[in-house]
Amino acid sequence: MLKRQYALVERSKLRVPGVPLVAETSIARFPPGAKNPLGLKYRLQLYREDTGETLVRYDVHHGKGHQRHFLGEEQPYEWGSVERLIEDFRKDTERIKQMLNEGAL
Predict the structure, then answer these.
(1) How far is it, in rounded angstroms, from Cα 43 to Cα 27?
(2) Would the N or C end of the chain have less CB density within 10 A of its end CB?
(3) What string of pLDDT tens digits covers the 105 residues of the chain?
């Protein structure tokens, strides 16, 4: 059996300053195949440090494609690039941080 070769593009776990949030990212590339022609696996997640509740998550699954989860709602995510994915996650993180600071969450 052949093991899949992958290259880790990004992996981090950071506390968001000023609010009880943690951002975790994992992005890996591997040879494209029938199940994943893009050759990319990713999961970017923002969760509350105090409760563990996921507030934002971007991921990709065979059969479901690219997805964005925002405050409990799942929707398709229009793939563009790794750079755009990271920027979209950063924007959602800032939006959630603002909502927390305003008392909306």
Answers:
(1) 7
(2) N
(3) 445 566 767 788 999 998 999 999 999 888 888 888 888 899 999 999 999 999 999 999 888 899 999 999 999 999 999 999 999 999 999 999 999 999 998
Instruction: Tell me the CA end-to-end span of the chain in Å, nearest whole number.
Output: 48
Place of tokens 């755009």: 84
Summary count for the chain: helices (H), strands (E): 1, 6
Q: Is the pTM of this model over 0.85?
A: yes
Q: Which residue has the tokens 């506390």?
A: 15
CA distance 33 to 35: 6
The count of domains in the chain is 1
Task: Determine, yes or no, domain membership for 1.
Answer: no
Secondary-structure breakdown of the chain: helix, strand, coil percentages, each rounded to the nearest 5: 20, 45, 35
